[in-house]
Amino acid sequence: MNFPSLNEQIDIIKSGTVEIIPEDQLVKKIENSIQKKIPLNIKLGCDPSRPDLHLGHSVVLRKLRQFQDLGHNAILIIGDFTGMIGDPSGKNKTRPPLTLEETKQNGKSYFEQASKILLKEKTQILYNSDWLQKMNFSDVIKLASNYTIARMLERDDFTERFKSGTPISMHEFLYPLAQAMDSVSIKSDIELGGTDQKFNLLVGRDIQISYSQTPQVIITMPILVGTDGINKMSKSLNNYIGIDDSPKDMYGKILSIPDNLIYDYFLLTTDLNKIEIQKIKLELDNSNTNPRNLKRKLARQIVKQYYDEATGLKEEENFDAIFVRKEIPEIIEEYFCESLTNKNILEILLETNLTSSKSEARRLLSQGGISIDGEKIIDQNFFPNKKEFVIKVGKRKFLKLIS
Q1: For residue range 175-216, what is the model confidence (pLDDT) as tens digits?
Q2: I want to staple 272 with a disulfide (CB 3.0 to 4.6 A). Which of 37, 187, 276, 383 is the partner?
Q3: CATH number of the domain at 6-221, out of 3.30.930.10, 3.40.50.150, 3.30.43.10, 3.40.50.620?
């Protein structure tokens, strides 16, 4: 197989990364790969406790796809066995463990969603229970003898928990060692991960050496900030853009990101090449540039990647119609409700689940976030006195009520 040149590969691989440890070994591995015409094994461990993927997960998945495009082997390791331990990385307490059945089901969902980014037919998917479950107690003792408690306590979350007196169970020390055995089992050349996984990835290098293997190179990727502009993208914080989101939600959420995240999102979540990314940066540096226009381009690009170009353009038109031209969308979900004329706005909002509580409904009404047929409603005792109307809640929710 003919691979791209060393410089071309390094240029693509380094784009958007935080650290390459060590970079000189990466160069040697690629040179050797080109000379012998043998692809490298690129490892990405997948956490099966989070089956719903979002753009934050896509950052490292997209780097794995770049390696595929360069001709290397992409190996997804579903941590079905390690998921039963519960990785505390980035947490101040252990993550609740899952059953093997739960981890396998989540792993299947992970792969299906990841295939929207990766070349599915060229992605090798493995479950680490295939080798970890076969280890006996003697094997575990041998593995654990290769690492010290002092080294384990260098990990930030363990250090903080130890200092604060928060319990650390012995099995948690086994997590990075078990993850390291994944690298040993597949003879990993390069392992990818977020910056929060740096410690675990480095343990993999040490354990490979203990098992007489050439250590893997570590490549860490940035943690994508969510739509709130503050925290790591997370479904639990409701600041995420899901890979499986509808085109409408995906487009709208992207337009809601703070202006200071525009460049990072273009760099880390889109297919734009180096020249196009540099052009985006120049536009952002230009005081005459309206950031909203760049966010529209970003939204079109991301919707195009997960759906198609026509869908991206359609969602832009729909967005303009609703939020720029203040039009009502052509297709609106309908709700049949008995005796609309006998119910006030609060009762309607609760019955239709447009708001989760009366307090939320009152807040939206006071803020002017509720309208009926284009007219804002502020009075919580308002009676529509219509048999059919369109109610709008916030910026994106529309519902046609019929009685």
Answers
A1: 899 999 999 999 999 999 999 999 999 999 999 999 999 999
A2: 276
A3: 3.40.50.620
